[in-house]
Write a structure and sequence with these properties.
The two termini are 62 Å apart. The chain is of the alpha+beta class. A hairpin with a 2-residue loop joins strand 9 and strand 10. It folds into 4 domains: 46 residues; 121 residues, Triger factor/SurA peptide-binding fold (Orthogonal Bundle), CATH 1.10.4030.10; 106 residues, Chitinase A, domain 3 (Roll); 106 residues, Chitinase A, domain 3. The strands form 3 sheets. A 4-stranded antiparallel sheet has the order 4-3-6-5. Strands 8-7-10-9 form a 4-stranded antiparallel sheet. Strands 2-1-11 form a 3-stranded antiparallel sheet. The chain contains 14 helices and 11 strands.
């Protein structure tokens, strides 16, 4: 029978109802199988021992991450995203172990035991006590051992590579033990102008004082210091190049500097042989120590004749040629041959035992700098600061400080090394 419209046989359904039913059943079964295969990877990813990610082709499992989270929480290393933190620590552990092993690093069982004992001792526990607590927290021994192995191998590798390059000098130890290395106080950056109080300068000084008092800018003050200041700092616009503890300044100055705005000028303040002005350039909270714990070492010489041209020439020569307290006596005695050897002395004294005027001068100096502003008993007092140290009980011995500085330097090298390894590492997720 032909279709009357186009001459072709009449159209019939491709499938009978029964055949269609069987086909649909097959399609549904295939779709179900496909759906099952699509959801299978997440199911496998949630398996504790499947790989969560790879570090240079080395697998890290979900179980490793869970254990690391527990361990970090156990030692108090909490963060907003503990899983992400655990992953980062595991990546670092694996990179450290891989690099140390690549370069021939090996650990003996005794080294691992010692590392575990050292870590447990930080919590004032024996290794056995620490392991018992780990077990109670659901943390495997292998998790702890892996952490120790990575840390010990990495530490030894960094020491072998970098320790020969690091030099800890005596001056570095001095700095670590210095006042600047300890605790917070308010400090200021200042500029200074010293006008001589000698009678022959009185008329000129009286004219200059009101002009300095009206100064409101740092530039104006610097210009005035270059023109009229009798202090050695006049050449640099009166700038004092160190942060000054306001507690060591004369009370009438320190009290104002604590709250004054930048640019404020305080003065004139009468000091032996001079009228002093100070301008605030900056203020900060830094580190300091109780006065009773500070010890100063400094060189002192007294030049008869006060602020004479001859004495000022001696001071200028000293400033140009002396870089440290080691140079001070020789240069001073050559420049002022009238002085006896005993007239040039190194003094080591607690800060609280130094007279207020000398102490205020020394406070404005960095080690190796010279002051020649004071006149005491008719002499121009020349001072050079050698060092500031903390002389209180509890200050660690120098060898302990040397070890701490060495460890800090090694840690910096290790951090840079690890950052480079991380940049080159292949971190991938399945």
């Amino acid at each position: 029978m032909r279709d009357t419209n186009n001459g072709f046989p009449p159209m019939r359904p491709a499938f009978s109802p029964a055949r269609l039913s069987r086909t649909l059943a097959v399609v549904v079964a295939v779709m179900f199988a496909l759906a099952s295969s699509l959801v299978a990877p997440p199911a496998r990813a949630q398996s504790p021992f499947s790989a969560a990610f790879y570090v240079n082709d080395q697998a890290v499992t979900n179980y490793d991450i869970t254990q690391k989270i527990r361990f970090l929480e156990f030692i108090g290393a909490n963060s907003a995203d503990m899983r992400e933190t655990a992953i980062e620590r595991l990546i670092e552990d694996h990179m450290q172990l891989q690099e140390a092993t690549r370069l021939g690093g090996r650990l003996t069982p005794d080294q691992i035991d010692n590392g575990m004992a050292e870590f447990a001792a930080r919590a004032e526990l024996t290794t056995e006590e620490f392991l018992t607590q780990l077990n109670q927290a659901g943390i495997d021994l292998e998790t702890f051992e892996s952490f120790i192995r990575a840390g010990v191998m990495w530490r030894e590798l960094v020491q072998v590579l970098y320790r020969p390059q690091i030099v800890i000098s005596e001056s570095m130890i001095d700095q670590a033990l210095s006042v600047e290395g300890i605790q917070p106080v308010t400090e200021v950056l200042i500029s200074e102008i010293f006008l001589p109080s000698d009678p022959q300068y009185s008329e000129a000084v009286e004219r200059v004082i009101p002009q300095i008092q009206r100064i409101s800018s740092v530039a104006e003050f610097a210009n005035a210091a270059r023109q009229v200041s009798a202090a050695p700092s006049s050449a640099t616009g009166g700038r004092v190049d160190r942060w000054v503890n306001i507690g060591a300044m004369p009370p009438e100055v320190g009290g104002r500097m604590e709250t004054a705005s930048v640019g404020t000028v305080v003065g004139p303040i009468e000091v032996p042989g001079a009228y002093a002005f100070f301008q605030l350039r900056a203020r900060r909270n830094s580190r300091g120590v109780p006065d009773s714990a500070v010890e100063l070492a400094y060189q002192r010489a007294g030049l008869t004749g006060g602020r004479s041209e001859q004495n000022l020439a001696v001071v200028q020569q000293l400033q140009q040629q002396a870089d440290s307290c080691h140079d001070f006596p020789g240069i001073m005695l050559r420049a002022a041959p009238q002085l006896s050897n005993e007239a040039v002395t190194e003094i080591v004294r607690a800060q609280t035992e130094i007279d207020a005027d000398t102490r205020a001068e020394l406070e404005r100096l960095n080690p190796g700098q010279v002051s020649a502003n004071l006149i005491q008993n008719g002499e121009l007092v020349v001072l050079m600061l050698c060092r500031r140290t903390v002389a209180a009980e509890g200050v660690p011995p120098r060898q302990e400080v040397r070890s701490a500085l060495m460890n800090r330097a090694l840690e910096r090298h290790g951090t840079v090394y690890l950052q480079r390894l991380r940049a080159e590492a292949d971190i991938r997720y399945p």
